[in-house]
């Protein structure tokens, strides 16, 4: 026991040393901002605009899921200032002490935030985070390949012959398992072992009809025709449809996930003031509109309409048709459920 | 005077030696021993819910490699799943070695038999693709082999196939990726070995009516044996633990050990299990290397013994001849 304690102290000391080295190098180069964001989620023009406006050098790294973000930060990676976690991940990150309380609601542009996005369960009153964009997660089908009804999760889990072997799933434990739970008619955030066992077996069988399981490049696969079905977020779907008109976003009758991404400042951010400036900058309606025009999701602030592209008028992806189910926000599940989900996920991938 | 001269600390042989050795020892300590020790320690801990570890001793990670908890009864039952991943990785790596050798040997032979001036140029050409990051090359490979890619389009246009070959996101794609990633590791040691080979031995073999195959099999291969072993190991070991090729070309569905370990530190958030799998992989590779080292030393020993034995016989013969 004593030995492991000593080793623990040693590793902690080493990571502190490494952290110190990183910090000292950050101090040398003033006027920087290190952004850690989802891939394909930020127009370079906007970063350039911020860089020019505040004379700050902006660098961006990307990740492909909330879980990857969490894993990186939990492994002790330092040096990032701003990240873009989804709703439930903000709650987890606050609990894990990974976020800096910047009193986000005191930022000057906070007044522009949409009112129903202020008192949210994951950050009551918005101390840690400001809204980035929000949307839904479902899937998209190439109607040139399959002409039948696409508004059902059968497309993913029990596909018609035309679509077999042409399906890409997100590499995201919650998106896949939540969809599977809805398909089976079970509650999300579910600790019922009998039901999870069914989900586990169902996924294993369904995966035989899947081409791949990856999040990065899903739009590319749809547009190139490598995949005829892929899980997508609605904004990604809109962009894909503009490149290939036969692609259609589905509103599965069993339900779909709603999400809201947020800008947060990470604990011990080396460039705290620049990070706050950046959050405030992104809440400017014109900038938020630039982001929406690029990524295709709904902005979290009011007043973006005058700046928005024509393509959003009546877009199916952002305006659910009558009769479509209401998208469901999924809060973080209990640790026991998380562990069971992780097991199903590992079973599926292995 | 000189007899009473006391050596200063730096003139002391022992101190000097340890001072000169210290950079190497410190480097190995920090960059080899420490990380490996960390992996070993972490493999005996409990996983935290959101990643990280709980500092409690446990052998669960190693048990998980062979057993899994049943969803309903919560009993531990044997699962071959991870062993299967190990087996699949092993198979992929062996196939990659085979094709690397098949292509690498003639390539190395070709380069080694060019005039000395141009050999450098050929070797240089081998390395050019490797100036580009491995990830970028692997993604490019995906774009070439995918259903709508140039390879399939070319074959379709020629009329050789009437629907695209589905190579992308299969085991074939993964093996192709491994082959492409590690080919130079085969070519370079083979070249080094063949370049030192005395080609007049081949002429001698032909003079003694050896066929081309026999000359290759009994003269060239044994002489460059160490190069072959080095090349095969250099391809096999990184292939076994490869991460990028299966991840990109396998589309997340062709898991190899490397991906399985990486998954434990990302989506699955089970650091101890990832560490345990790494320890098991490391042990396996180590055993393999020791086996080759043991065989190499044994065969060189037996060769020496044979030579000694022959020499003794000869001496005896000459002695006997002398007594007549």
What do you see in this structure?
The complex is a heterodimer of chains A (350) and B (324). The model of chain A is unreliable at 1-7 and 13-29 (pLDDT under 50). Chain A has 12 helices and 13 strands. With 350 residues, chain A is of the alpha/beta class. Chain A has helices at 2-28, 44-54, 66-74, 87-95, 154-157, 173-184, 193-206, 218-224, 234-243, 272-282, 285-295, 335-349, and strands spanning 32-38, 57-63, 82-83, 119-120, 123-124, 129-142, 167-169, 210-213, 229-233, 247-249, 257-265, 298-299, 328-329. Chain A has 2 domains: 31-134 and 259-312, D-Maltodextrin-Binding Protein, domain 2 (3-Layer(aba) Sandwich); 135-258 and 323-349, D-Maltodextrin-Binding Protein, domain 2. In chain A, the strands form 2 sheets. In chain A, strands 1, 2, 3, 6, 7, 8, 9, 10, 11, 12 and 13 form an 11-stranded mixed beta sheet that branches. In chain A, strands 4-5 form a two-stranded antiparallel ribbon. Chain B has a domain at 83-269: MetI-like fold (Orthogonal Bundle), CATH 1.10.3720. Chain B is built from 13 helices and 4 strands. Chain B has helices at 13-42, 60-66, 81-112, 116-127, 134-145, 150-158, 171-196, 200-207, 212-223, 225-240, 244-249, 257-265, 271-323, and strands spanning 46-47, 53-54, 67-69, 76-78. The mean pLDDT of chain B is 87.
Entry keywords:
heterodimer, A: alpha/beta, D-Maltodextrin-Binding Protein, domain 2, 2 domains, eleven-stranded mixed β-sheet, 12 helices, B: mainly alpha, MetI-like fold, two-stranded antiparallel ribbon, 4 strands, 72% helix, globular
């Amino acid at each position: 026991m004593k030995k492991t304690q000593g080793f623990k102290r040693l590793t902690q000391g080493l990571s502190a040393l490494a952290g110190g080295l990183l910090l000292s190098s950050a101090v040398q180069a003033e006027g920087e901002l290190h952004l850690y964001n989802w891939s394909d989620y930020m127009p370079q023009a906007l970063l350039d605009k911020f860089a020019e406006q505040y004379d700050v050098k902006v660098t961006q790294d990307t990740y492909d899921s909330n879980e990857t973000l969490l894993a990186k930060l939990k492994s002790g990676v330092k040096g990032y200032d701003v990240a873009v976690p989804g709703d439930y991940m903000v709650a987890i990150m606050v609990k894990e002490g990974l976020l800096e309380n910047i009193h986000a609601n005191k930022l000057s542009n906070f007044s522009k935030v949409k009112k129903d996005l202020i008192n949210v369960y994951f950050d009551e009153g918005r101390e840690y985070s400001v809204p980035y964009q929000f949307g839904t997660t479902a899937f998209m089908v190439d109607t040139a390949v399959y002409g039948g009804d696409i508004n059902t999760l059968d497309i993913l889990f029990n596909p018609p012959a035309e679509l077999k072997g042409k399906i890409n799933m997100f590499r995201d434990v919650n998106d896949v398992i939540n969809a599977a739970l809805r398909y089976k008619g079970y509650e999300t955030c579910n600790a019922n072992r009998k039901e999870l066992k069914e989900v586990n077996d169902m996924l294993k069988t369904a995966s035989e009809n899947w081409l791949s399981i990856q999040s990065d490049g899903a739009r590319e696969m749809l547009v190139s025709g490598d995949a005829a079905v892929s899980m997508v977020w609605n904004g990604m779907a809109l962009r894909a449809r503009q490149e290939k008109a036969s692609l259609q976003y589905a509103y599965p009758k069993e339900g779909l996930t709603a999400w809201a991404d947020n800008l947060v400042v990470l604990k011990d951010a080396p460039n705290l003031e620049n990070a706050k400036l950046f959050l405030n900058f992104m809440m400017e309606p014109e900038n938020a509109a630039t982001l929406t025009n690029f990524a295709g999701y709904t902005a979290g602030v009011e007043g973006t309409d005058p700046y928005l592209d024509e393509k959003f008028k009546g877009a199916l992806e952002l305006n659910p048709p009558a009769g479509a189910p209401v998208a469901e926000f999924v809060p973080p599940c209990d640790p026991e459920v998380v562990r069971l989900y992780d097991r199903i996920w590992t079973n599926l991938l292995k | 005077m000189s007899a009473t001269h006391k050596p200063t600390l730096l003139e002391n042989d022992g101190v000097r030696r340890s001072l000169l050795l210290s950079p190497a020892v410190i480097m190995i300590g920090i960059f080899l021993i420490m990380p490996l020790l960390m992996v070993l320690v972490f493999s005996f801990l409990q996983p935290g819910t959101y990643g990280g570890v709980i500092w409690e001793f446990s052998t669960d990670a190693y048990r998980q490699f062979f057993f899994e908890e049943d969803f309903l009864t919560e009993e531990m039952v044997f699962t071959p799943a991870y062993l299967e991943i190990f087996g699949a990785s092993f198979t992929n790596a062996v196939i990659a070695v085979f094709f690397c050798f098949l292509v690498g040997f003639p390539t190395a032979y070709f380069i080694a038999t060019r005039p000395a001036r141009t050999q450098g140029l050929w070797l240089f050409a081998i390395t050019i693709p490797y100036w580009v990051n491995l990830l970028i090359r692997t993604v490019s490979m995906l774009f070439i082999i995918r259903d709508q890619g140039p390879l399939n389009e070319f074959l379709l246009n020629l009329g050789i196939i009437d629907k695209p070959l589905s190579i992308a996101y299969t085991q074939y794609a993964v093996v192709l990726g491994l082959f492409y990633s590690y080919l130079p590791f085969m070519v370079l040691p083979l070249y080094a070995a063949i370049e030192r080979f005395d080609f007049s031995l081949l002429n001698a073999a032909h003079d003694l009516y050896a066929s081309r195959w026999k000359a290759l099999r009994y003269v060239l291969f044994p002489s460059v044996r160490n190069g072959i072993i080095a090349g095969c190991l250099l391809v096999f070991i990184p292939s076994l633990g490869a991460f990028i090729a299966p991840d990109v070309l396998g589309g997340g569905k062709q898991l190899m050990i490397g991906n399985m370990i990486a998954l434990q530190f990302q989506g699955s958030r089970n650091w101890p299990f990832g560490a345990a799998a790494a320890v098991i992989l490391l042990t396996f590779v180590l055993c393999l290397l020791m086996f080759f080292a043991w065989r190499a030393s044994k065969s060189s020993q037996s060769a020496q013994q044979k030579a000694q034995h022959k020499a003794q016989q000869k001496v005896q013969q000459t002695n006997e001849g002398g007594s007549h």
